[in-house]
Amino acid sequence: MSVPDTAFPDTRDDVETLPSATSPVHEAPLAPHVAFDRTQPIEAKKRRADKPLQPVDPWQGGVDWFTVGWFALIHAGALAAPFVFTWKAVGVFLFLYWITGGLGICLGYHRLLTHGSFQTYRPVRWMFAFLGSLAGEGSAIIWVANHRKHHAHSDKEEDPHSPRDGAWWSHMLWFMPNFGRKWHDDMGRHYAPDLMKDPVIRFLDKTFLIWFFVLAAILWGVGYVFWDSYTAWSFVVWGMFVRMVWVYHITWAVNSATHMWGYRNYETTDDSKNLWWVGLLAWGEGWHNNHHAYQRMARHGHKWWEFDMTYYSIWALEKLGLAWNVVKKVPAWQKPE
Predict the structure, then answer these.
(1) Is 9 inside any structural domain?
(2) Nearest to 194 by CA among 9, 4, 1, 3
(3) Rounded to an integer, what is the distance from CA 54 to the centroid of its chain?
(4) How many domains does the chain have?
């Protein structure tokens, strides 16, 4: 099987010159797309002329009614949950919560595609991109582009979702303005050109909505064939609507809550914090200050009790020979006490 090109795009917009004599180097090197902090020697100041600019008024293009309607529909569908409750449907919910949220978003979109925390075969990479798309948070291209932009400008003016612009903005309002199709394309070309070059990732981007109807049909068919129509609808409501709402808000809490509340193991140039309940519910993503300090690291839990389920999934892939070059090491001089 072929191994994907792991070269990362250079998405740095501004890089400050820092004296290397006073700036120890990370033992686990960061990919070029991540934000730079004062623990790294930087040799030059650079400005990208082609960066997609964040509008001064994000609402100047109006509301993205398609996106708002999509999320409103999913939330409205979840309201049917008490009327079609079955324990089998709860099992479907929990399974898909792990598959789409844990493996798709946290492992696939975030640690693999955004940060390159490990390498794997192309078909495995495509599988995780597909699972991430089933979470309903956008295709891999726009999700990764937004997240790389977040790290490049974390809690600064061009951060897409900083709580400094308001708690609700960082949680869910940030994706509701209509920035236009050109902005979408510019974001992909600037922050995720590696994904734009992948024909399968582009195919998943173009067919994003189709797969939700396919999955809903599969869930309904399984419930009807093996049980009855009531079970079929319970699978659809709990496996699609309830599960997607849950994964949405857990993921969004990483953007909002972990930049407002919690504790810090590392001094970073942003407001990132470690928040235990997000750490548990978001499969290890809530140890967010650790992640912002060492963005390419596969392990986000840096203290013994900071449980990181996503890392153990990567560890299992490595043992199976499906992952390699896993970025594991925290520099000894900066390990938390």
Answers:
(1) no
(2) 9
(3) 20
(4) 1
